């Protein structure tokens, strides 16, 4: 294989996007364990203000992802090639890393978190739509499975590496692996040859067989009406909304555990930070098998993997309500339930991400030109990523409030009920057919 073919190959595109996902999430998590110390030692905040600003920085990151996803999703559909906006993401995350490493100003740290959120938005909108352009619908499930695996590894590795390096070598040493990854990511994105987006070609081919021999020019002006924006059209489609809600729910569940378990486990089991990290391995390790879940989606379509995934998540979260007293049995059950949860996510995540694309494609095939000449691939991913980011904001807030107000049992049962609701919605609105057979319903205006 020539160098040119390798740079434009599907395998290389998957590698580049997986590295981009890992790097972005890794860099976000890298500063999590040392951020409270940085706010105290470098910025000079009092101990009473650290929790407040730490929460604000998390919310700022989530808000930047939500808004940035919509902006960069629209931008991705307007460009002829996604190479330039994809490269822009490296500059954004590089700038955020420089700010974090050098600044002692609180406003600049907030700006750094905003830039990290924008970078995540670029990776999950431009990067994923670029991946679809290269891979195509046939193997999108497996490709998304690999990116889900990269996401899980980044979520787990970032805080561990950051905490270990900070304790061992200090603040500035933490950013050495960060800059190495940014440089590697820049080189890979430069080397990648992205497909050229040819506006209107797909729709022109679709219309060729339907074009009348004698065009009807008398009533064109009366029949043609301005189409609503692609974002509005997507949001009016129940199938697409269910896929978005699935992404929102999955991230809500994951961030709920990140926010609640580090507080709850020391209260019940007297666990220290290292033991808590080991507990998190129980639900993180199964997510490494996401490519297998993606292969299931490619062979069966999203319906059954989504039902299976949320069907595993529902009882695993509800059964966590049993973890109330310290014992060997409850310690083993805790890890077992979290393991089942991780297995459910590794199947449901590729299914919901693939369904985002398939539901958008179904709308285009059912009504050619519905999104205009440029399509709406990046905007579909932008909405999906905005929903995913919404889980970052809502999950921890909901779980923390319910646990304090009504207790651990109520929190676990209610979260499991939400997962059970997703099973019902998937059954009602997600087609059971394999990818390639399209079906869609749109809510009337």
UniProtKB/TrEMBL annotation:
Membrane disposition: Multi-pass membrane protein
One Pfam assignment: MFS_1
What parts of the sequence cross the membrane? 12-35, 55-74, 86-108, 114-132, 144-166, 172-192, 240-265, 303-325, 332-353, 405-429
Q: Which GO terms describe its cellular component?
A: membrane
Q: Do you know which PROSITE patterns this protein is assigned to?
A: MFS
Show the GO MF annotations. transmembrane transporter activity
Instruction: Enumerate the spans annotated as Major facilitator superfamily (MFS) profile domain.
Output: 13-434
Look up keyword Membrane and say if it applies: yes
Main location per UniProt? membrane
The answer to keyword Acyltransferase applying to this record is: no
Under what name is this protein listed?
MFS amine transporter
């Amino acid at each position: 294989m020539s160098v040119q073919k390798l740079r434009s190959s599907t395998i290389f595109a998957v590698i580049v996007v997986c590295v981009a996902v890992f790097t972005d999430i890794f860099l976000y998590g890298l500063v999590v364990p040392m951020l409270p110390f940085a706010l105290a030692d470098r910025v000079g905040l009092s101990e009473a203000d650290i929790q407040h600003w730490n929460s604000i920085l998390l919310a700022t990151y989530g808000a930047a992802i939500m808004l940035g996803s919509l902006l960069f999703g629209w931008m991705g559909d307007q460009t002829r090639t996604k190479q330039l906006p994809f490269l822009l993401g490296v500059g954004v995350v590089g700038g955020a890393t420089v700010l974090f490493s050098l600044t002692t100003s609180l406003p600049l740290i907030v700006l750094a978190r905003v830039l990290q959120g924008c970078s995540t938005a670029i990776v999950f909108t431009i990067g994923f739509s670029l991946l679809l352009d290269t891979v195509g619908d046939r193997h999108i499930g497996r490709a998304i499975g690999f990116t889900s695996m990269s996401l899980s590894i980044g979520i787990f590795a970032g805080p561990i590496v950051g905490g270990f390096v900070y304790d061992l070598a200090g603040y500035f040493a933490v950013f050495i692996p960060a800059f190495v990854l940014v440089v590697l990511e820049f080189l890979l994105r430069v080397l990648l040859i992205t497909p050229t987006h040819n506006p209107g070609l797909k729709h022109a081919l679709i219309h060729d067989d339907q074009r009348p021999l004698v065009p009807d020019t008398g009533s064109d002006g009366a029949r043609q009406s301005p189409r609503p924006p692609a974002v509005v059209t997507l949001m009016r489609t129940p199938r697409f909304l269910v896929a978005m809600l699935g992404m929102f729910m999955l991230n809500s569940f994951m961030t709920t555990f990140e926010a609640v378990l580090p507080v709850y486990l020391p209260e019940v089991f007297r666990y220290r930070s290292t033991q808590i990290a080991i507990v998190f391995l129980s639900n993180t390790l199964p997510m490494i098998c996401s490519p297998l879940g993606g292969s299931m989606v490619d062979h069966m379509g999203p319906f059954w993997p989504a039902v299976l995934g949320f069907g595993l998540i529902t009882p695993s979260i509800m059964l966590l309500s049993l973890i109330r007293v310290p014992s060997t049995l409850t310690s083993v059950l805790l890890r077992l339930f979290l393991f089942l949860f991780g297995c459910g996510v590794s199947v449901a995540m590729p299914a919901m991400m693939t369904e985002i694309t398939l539901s958008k494609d179904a709308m285009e095939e059912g009504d050619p030109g519905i999104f205009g000449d440029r399509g709406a691939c990046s905007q579909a991913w932008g909405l999906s990523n905005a929903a995913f980011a919404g889980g970052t904001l809502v999950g921890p807030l909901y779980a923390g409030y319910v646990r304090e107000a009504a207790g651990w049992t109520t929190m676990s049962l209610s979260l499991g009920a939400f997962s059970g609701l997703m099973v019902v919605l998937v059954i009602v609105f997600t087609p059971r057919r394999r990818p390639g057979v399209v079906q869609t319903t749109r809510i009337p205006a």
